[in-house]
Design brief:
Chain lengths: 114, 115
């Protein structure tokens, strides 16, 4: 699996956009970028994933650079409840082997301030 | 719709006792996963069920741990003769299988404390 690099922490003002970067310079052509988050004392939460096109859902937007070596998760209007550790993961999205074992790196602690 | 539910939310047990943790996955999800997370630590994979296939038990830390999934839905994780090192949050997740195996939806977890 391609390695990812994320800043250890970020701050954001409530109501502003939170832009969380992730570097994955060794990503392969068939690897997707997944984002999860974990709010304190809760289970992890799937946010979004993408291959090469930008993606948007009700939670966030995912912007992947054209060379796919980095991506940005955007929370358009951050709220206090978005304070969490955000994890960027790069994995091949197909069945087989032990591809389903979810593992997190250190992630980015996003603190949304009032 | 309903998400993944787990029960109990908290369990305190004495060392040496057996415990059962329950997971109700999202309806229609064929894949079910158990993980545990110790305080401040990452996810530790325990076991994976996919449809009628034999489960992947490779993550179970000892033979005191077992799990079953009845009727392709509800799953129970059993820990026999609990030890203090078993104290952790036990998380259950479910997903559609195959291509969607990495979109996992987690329950709130069961916090197990062994005294």
């Amino acid at each position: 699996d391609a390695k990812t690099t994320q800043p250890p922490s970020m701050d954001c003002a409530e109501g502003r956009a939170a832009n969380l970067p992730c570097n994955h310079s060794t990503i392969s052509g068939n690897e997707y970028v997944y984002w999860y988050r974990q709010i304190h004392s809760q289970g992890p939460q799937y946010i979004i994933h993408g291959l090469k096109n930008n993606e948007t859902n009700e939670m966030a937007s995912l912007i992947i650079t054209e060379d796919r070596k980095s991506s940005t998760l955007i929370l358009p209007h951050a709220t206090l409840r978005d304070t969490a550790v955000y994890y960027c993961i790069v994995r091949v999205a197909h069945s087989g082997g032990s591809n389903y074992k979810l593992t997190f790196g250190k992630g980015t602690l996003l603190t949304v301030n009032p | 719709g309903a998400g993944v539910s787990q029960s109990p939310s908290n369990k305190v047990t004495e060392k040496g006792k057996d415990v059962e943790l329950r997971c109700d996955p999202i309806s229609g999800h064929t894949a079910l996963y158990w993980y545990r997370q110790s305080l401040g630590q990452g996810l530790e994979f325990l076991i994976y069920f996919q449809g009628n296939s034999a489960p992947d038990k490779s993550g179970l830390p000892s033979d005191r741990f077992s799990a079953e999934r009845t009727g392709g839905s509800v799953s129970t994780l059993t820990i026999q003769r609990t030890q203090q090192e078993d104290s952790a949050v036990y998380l259950c997740a479910s997903s559609l299988g195959g291509h969607y195996s990495y979109e996992q939806y987690f329950g709130p977890g069961t916090r197990l404390t062994v005294t």
